[in-house]
Amino acid sequence: MKRTPRRSLIKKSYDSEKVLKxxxxxxxxxxxxxxTPARKRREAGAAEEEISRSERNTYAFxxxxxxxxxxxxxxxxxxxxxxxxxxxxSFALFICLAVFCYSAYMLAERFYYYIxxxxxxxxxxxxxxxxxxxxxxxxxxxxxxxxxxxVLDSLGGAQAPVIDETKVVLTDEQKLLYAxxxxxxxxxxxxxxxxxxxxxxxxxxxLRGTDNDHYLKFNYIGDYNxxxxxxxxxxxxxxxxxxxxxxxxxxxxxxGSMLAQLHNYDNEKLFKDGIVKIMTDEGTFVYKxxxxxxxxxxxxxxxxEFNSVNDYYDFILGLQxxxxxxxxxVLKPTDQVLTxxxxxxxxxxxxxxxxxxxxxxxxx
Length: 364
Hints:
Elements: H1 6-33, H2 37-66, H3 70-74, H4 84-129, E1 142-146, H5 150-154, E2 163-169, H6 172-187, E3 191-196, E4 203-207, H7 214-217, E5 230-232, E6 245-249, H8 268-272, E7 275-280, E8 283-293, H9 309-321, E9 337-343, E10 353-363
Parallel strand pairs: 4-5, 6-9
Antiparallel strand pairs: 1-2, 3-4, 3-7, 5-6, 7-8, 8-10, 9-10
Helix pairs in contact: 4-6
């Protein structure tokens, strides 16, 4: 048998590959040229199936997102590392928030007590200023008359005040005033008077307690209130006619209440015209201002006891000499003096007081 040379086989193999490639090209060209409607339908169906598969995948993805929970991806999110500055910032923020909340509470509390105080004192002012003439018929027509030497007799531990047994008939105005104080004493037995300074908001009951502390924080009803009450020094007598030196205290409230508007008399013109009225069941005592100053709280401007007339006279002359403004008032050893004392404004040290002194010029 005649064998085919190896080189011929390689050539035939090469030729066969070439033929296959040519046939393949013809097939592809023929399919492109001679594609049938059935093939188009198959291709369209395949495209629709691909779109449907994509929609299903999209829906499944959306559903998986909806079902995700925070804890499912917590581990995937990088956690910020806290350093010392973050801790300090958080602590500072907490402190600021706490200070803000406390300040808001204190401010709300302050306004609450301002409003409450205004309501309470408004109610008692309405009682005092109302016309109670209908009760006059039930009052005794006479009261004991304190003799004119009461003050001098009580100075320096001398004999007790002399009470004149003679009865004196009161006028309707005096009986009306007496009736008003009977009504106020029924509210609080410590109420003995009413202070009024025209042109200011100072229009309050005056009380006297067993010390000088209680009425700093309690009102005339006995309720706690930072505004407190207007009150007399506990060493004074409720009967003003028996006091050489009557001392009355009150807070300097920021809303202008209590004795805050006493500061108005740091004006020379107002000071020189300043008149204070204190009404009691004895009558209405009228005082004229003669001194205004800002003493240190340790200065003994509130003395109520004296060794002699000369001791007292030196004391009131000293009060006059300390005045910021001078007047033409000439004090006498027998003059009765009223002192009104309140706190200074925030611009001055809290160790000082704003003080006004006035001398009794008449009784109505």
